[in-house]
């Protein structure tokens, strides 16, 4: 699909059932995401991603009472009302919401290895991921190591690369050692 078609979908309507979406490049920058040349500011409304990526699979969550106080401290009172996570299974992409509509995080599945959650995409992302135009692995490999993931602070975003096996020796990690990358607003 060409750039003009993606802009048409973004501003002119949802993808039709006959269209197959292919995403070739996601660039993470200090101002948000750039998905095949289309800027996506974060936070964003789920409808903007639906126009660009198509209709996702939705997984609803009920927030347990013991988690509600913490989540409300982090995200604000009444912001945790309808937690829904979305997955574009064929694209290897997902996002998380606290209210069903506004993204709190965006995820890129790099590998089918590692943790399995019901909201994770069924397949890995097949395109190229860059951070400020540089290959993601080199950038994340130099980020702060937190034992089970690496974290990179980039302007107002926190980028987390999760390991498939946190017990691997840090010096032996390769691109295949990461299961996903998540982009969140800093808390």
Structural summary, described in words:
- The protein contains 4 helices and 13 strands.
- Helix 1 runs antiparallel to helix 2.
- The radius of gyration is 16 Å and the shape is globular.
- It has one domain.
- The strands form 2 sheets. Strands 4-5-6-7-13-12-11-10 form an 8-stranded antiparallel β-sheet. Strands 3-2-1-8-9 form a 5-stranded mixed β-sheet.
- By secondary structure, the chain is an alpha+beta fold.
- A hairpin with a 2-residue loop joins strand 8 and strand 9.
Furnish the topology, listing elements before pairings.
Blueprint: H1 3-12, E1 25-29, E2 32-35, E3 38-40, H2 46-53, E4 57-60, H3 65-75, E5 84-88, E6 93-97, E7 103-109, E8 128-131, E9 134-135, H4 136-141, E10 144-145, E11 149-154, E12 157-163, E13 178-185
Parallel strand pairs: 1-8
Antiparallel strand pairs: 1-2, 2-3, 4-5, 5-6, 6-7, 7-13, 8-9, 10-11, 11-12, 12-13
Helix pairs in contact: 1-2
């Amino acid at each position: 699909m060409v750039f003009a078609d993606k802009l048409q979908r973004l501003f002119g309507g949802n993808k039709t059932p006959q269209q197959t979406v292919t995403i070739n490049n996601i660039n993470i920058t200090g101002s948000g995401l750039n998905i095949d040349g289309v800027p996506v500011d974060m936070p964003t409304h789920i409808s903007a991603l639906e126009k660009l990526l198509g209709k996702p699979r939705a997984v609803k969550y009920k927030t347990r009472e013991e988690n509600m106080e913490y989540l409300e401290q982090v995200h604000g009172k009444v912001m945790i009302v309808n937690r829904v996570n979305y997955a574009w299974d064929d694209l290897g992409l997902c996002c998380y919401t606290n209210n069903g509509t506004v993204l709190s995080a965006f995820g890129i599945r790099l590998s089918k290895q590692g943790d399995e959650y019901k909201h994770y995409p069924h397949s890995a992302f097949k395109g190229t991921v860059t951070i400020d135009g540089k290959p993601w692995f080199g950038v994340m490999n130099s980020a702060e190591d937190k034992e089970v993931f690496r974290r990179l602070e980039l302007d107002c975003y926190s980028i987390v690369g999760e390991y498939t096996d946190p017990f691997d020796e840090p010096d032996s990690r390769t691109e295949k050692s990461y299961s996903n990358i998540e982009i969140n607003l800093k808390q």
